[in-house]
Each structure stands twice: as structure tokens, then as C-alpha cells.
Amino acid sequence: MRSEALGGTLLTKRLALPIFASDPLSSVAYATQEILLVLTLGGLAYLHFTPWIAAAVVGLMTVVVLSYRQVVHAYPSGGGSYEVASTNLGPSAGLVVAASLMVDYVMTVAVSVASGVDNIISAVPRLAEYRVPMALVFVALLSAMNLRGVRESGRAFAAPTYLFIGGVLIMVATGLFRYALGDAPVSESAAYGVTPRPGDADLMGLALVMLVLRAFSSGCTALTGVEAISNGVPAFRRPKPRNAATTLAAMGVIAVTMFVGVTALALITDVHITDDACRLTGLDGDCADHTQRTVIAQVASAVFGSDSVGFYFIQAATALVLILAANTAYNGFPLLTSILAQHRYLPRQLHNRGDRLAFSNGILALALAAGLLLWGFGANVTSLIHLYILGVFTSFTLSQSGMVRHWNRELRTETGEAVRRGHRIARVINATGAVVTGLVLVIVLATKFTQGAWLAVLAAILLWLMMRAVRRHYDSVAAELAVTDAHSELAPPSRVFAIVLVSTVHKPTMRALAYARAFRPDRLEALTVAVDPEGVAEVRSKWQEYDIQVPLKVLDSPYREITRPVVAYVRSIRRAGPRDVVAVFIPEYVVGRWWENALHNQTALWLKSRLLFTPGVMVISVPWQLHSSRHADRPAGRAPGAVRRGEPAPPDPSGGEPVRHDGPA
Fold first, then answer.
1. Of 41, 346, 411, 545, which sits most exposed with the smallest number of CB within 10 A?
2. One-character DSSP codes across 511-532
3. pTM of the full predicted structure?
């Protein structure tokens, strides 16, 4: 796609919702389950806390959505939480947000894919042994789809997201309707008892509070991905802020409705689920071989029937949307890293758009990190979930605190009373969001740190340090390369000393000599190293035979080295004339087959790598194309995407028919 086509990739609200909100919408598939898994550590007696915990999660979701609507209007450039924190709290706070979000985006891909695989296994238990390969394949497919471009991935992922929303809402409506009629559905695990985990029975006081807080922090996974819309405002059609804010509100309403509905049905159907199947009582057979179905699978089975079309539809839609929920990260992570690269906190390659106008390098980096995480943790949701949501609430807290400062600054300059009233209301919303999300961050740290969240903290710290180091490097390079005295730096060197390296006398050597002469240097000489006396004698003989009017200097090498004598000689010339420039011409073969590279140019590569570190030395490669290279110029012959665009093949350089290059070189 041409660069001018970027505007054509902008998203309508209908497409933006599944692209940016698939993560928070799909998290209803496991948020309720995570609450129940924690509460059943103490047995069934503590499940009565579930409605209160769910209500707290809903309240938190409402506050966060309202807060981010303020961010969307105030900072529509796409930096989201990172831009808010950087502008109002300083660069260091912005980098904390960026590092936290990057970790969380990687976790989003890992947890979403692992949870999707879990739901597939709930429908087809015999696939359990292929959990990790399935997860890695899904990551690869998601990456390939996103490399095709934002709009294309949105079209592909829109239908599954809307099918999931429709399926869950129909399931909730059906289940609640049956309950209202007195025909309450019953889950397959309702008859099972739960043995409390040792040490978690009859909890009182602080221990009970910690259990409830831990369940609440696990349920807060429902909020993951809420900030993605604020990061993706530039991808919306105009008016960008208003469309993004509308999409954010729609996402909040739909997510809350589905979360409340699934939680209510889980309680109505009496779902019992534990972290270890062997704590379930009343099982038939060996507990070690028992695979527990997910909460949403048990609810769907209770509402529609175990082998019904409705059950398999919910499972298929849930598995698909959970896997596609990773697409939120595939849109947020590359965009964030692009902004960071533009600000010189990450390698500049991450700022480049690919053939389809997507940030290809960011997509590949995310896929690699998520794949390693899935492989390392065996694609286990329970293990991965402890590393999750920490980064989200770090960014929530800092961005909302930054927004309070933003409104304070606006109020100092604004004189209109109506506008000031709006700013004060926005400040109250953001201040509430900062306080609430800050408390949740403390709860998450306290309850999950020893469970594995320390890894996420460590990763964020390392990323923060790395980004600071990258920025220092770019700043120091920019300062070193800055022009300080244009007149003196444009002054030509006193003399140009040209050296042509010679190993034997053949056509590449002749071309290098002719090219060096074209430069009209002040002094020109050929240089060879006496590694083999017979070889040197042959070079001298050919030099006289062809009457080459260039002085030939032979360097002695008693230890049969080539690189060290050449480098030492070049440096001696520099010492003798510090204002002189030494131009070293190196003949090189251009080959067309990958294995030929191992047979040629190794000495030239090593020499170049050493000479490039010598100030005042210019290293010039003089290529000689071997026959095998004649049809190996495909990248130059056709630009990426030329075949898809239907562009004609370029003419053969030799003057024959057009060269057909229908694949990569």
C-alpha cells in the first residue's frame, strides 16, 4: 500500500470496537472464573462474597471508562496514558507507564491465547496434550493477519467479536428467563463439594480480608485493554476524539452487561471450580485425569444443554474471541513502541511502517515475546494470570494523576465559567479514578507479588532502564554528530592517499585500480601482503607483464597474517599526516547463491570491520559481479508488493525479455 493510502485505513466505530475492545469484552470469559478460583480456596462457604466483588469490579470499570473518555478528548494524538504521564508528570513517569503497558500487552496476547486454547480443550478434552503447540500456532496466525494491515485485521476479527457478544447476551437472557420462570439451570459441577486448601479453611479477620482482596484483584482482569482505545485514537475516522469516546462508552456498557450476566448465571447454576481438581469431592474416577470445564462452558452447558448447538456455539465463539482478543495488544503495542521509537526511547526501526502500512517490527517483537512466554509457562492461564493486570493499573493510576494536573493547568488559564465548570467535573472524575486505581494497584501488588507478579515488576523495571539507556545513547550520538563549525568541517583534506588492496592480479583488481584512479588522489599505490612468497612473486610478475603504472607495495608478514599488517600500515600513514585522508579500495565478489558467500569475501569483511574503526580512513568496496549474481537482483528488480499491484516486470539488464520475479529472492 502506498503511503498516501494511510487515510483509507482509518476505522469506523463499527470496526474499531472489535479491534480495540476485544480484550476487555472477551475478558468476561475468565474474569468471573478467576474470582471463583480464589474464593474456593477456602471452600464453598466464601462464594457468597462473589456478588460484592463483582459489584466492586463494575464500579471500578465505570470509573476507568469515564476517566479515559477525558483522556481521549484531551490527548487525541495516540499516546494515551504514556503521553498524559510524560506531559504532566515528567519523562520518567511516562516511561514507567510505557514499560508497564508493554509488559501488559505481551501478557494480553499470552493470557488471551492460553484462555482461548483452554476453551477449545473444554469442548474437546483430548486436545489437552497439544496445548502449547496450539497456542504458538494461534500467535503465528494472529501475527500474520496483523501484518496485512489494521483495516484488514479489523474486518477479519469483527464477525467473531460480534458473534461472541450476541451469543453471551442470548445465553444470559435465556438463563435469567429460565430462572424467573422457576426453572433455574444447574451446572455439571453443582453436585461437587470443595475441600478447602490447607490453611485456608475457617478464615477470620485479616486472612479473610486478604482472600477477598485477592479475589477482587483477580476479577479486575475484566479491565484489561480498556486503555487501548485511548492509544489508538489516530486510527479512528474524523472526528477522532468523539468517535473514540463513543466507542469507549459502548465497550464499557457491553463489557459490564456481559460480566454481570455471566457472574449471575455462575451463581444461579451453582458452578464449583477449583485450582486443583483433586479438591473437588464427589468425582467419579481419578481426579488427576479430570479436566474441569471453564465457568462460561459450564454455564452454557447448563443453559443450553451439554451437547446442544448453543453450547458448542458459545464455546467456539468464546475460544475464537479470546484468541482474537490478543488483537487489542497487536494494535496497541506496535503503536506505543512506534511513539517511543519516535521519541528515541526504542530502536528507530520500530517506528517504520511495513508494506501494508502496519508497524511490522513491533508486531514481530510482540509475537516473539508472547510466544516465549507461552512456551515458558506451558500456556497455563492460572500461571500467567498472576503476571497480568499489574501494568494496567500502574498506567491507570499515573495517567489519571496526570490528568488531574492537566485540568489544574487548564483552570489557571481558562476564564469562561461554563468551561471551568466542565473542567472541574472532569478533574473530579480523574481524581476519583486516580485514587481508586491506585488502591487497586496496591491490592494487586500485595496479593499477587509472591504469586509471580514480581516477574512482571522486574520486566517493567528492566524495560524502563533499557529505554533510558537507549535515549542516552541516541542523545549522545546526536550531540557527537551535531555540526559545530560548518566552514571547518566542509574544508577538504590536505591530501587523499589511495590504497588498492591486491591479493592477485585479475579483473576485479583492474576495476578497483581504475576506480581509484578516477578519484584523482594525491597519491595512489597498490598494497599486497607477503603471506606466500610464490603468490607475491606471481603478483610482481603480472604487474610487470601488464605494465601497471601504479606503485606496488609489499608488506612483510612473518606470521602469515593479512589484517594486522594492513591496518598497521594504514594507521602509520594517518600518524604521518593527521589532516590526510586514506581511501582504501577493496575488490569484492558479488555472488548469487547463499552458500557462495562462505567461499568468498571473508578476508575483505574482516579488513573492513577493522579499518572502519580507524579515524580518517574511508573504506570503499568495489564490486565484481560473478555470473551467479546476474539473476539474483530480484529485490531491486521489483519492489515489495509489486506482484500484488500487478506492476510489469522490469526489463532484463542484459537486454533480453523482461525478468519474471514472482517470489522473494
1. 545
2. HHHHHHHHT--SEEEEEEEESS
3. 0.71
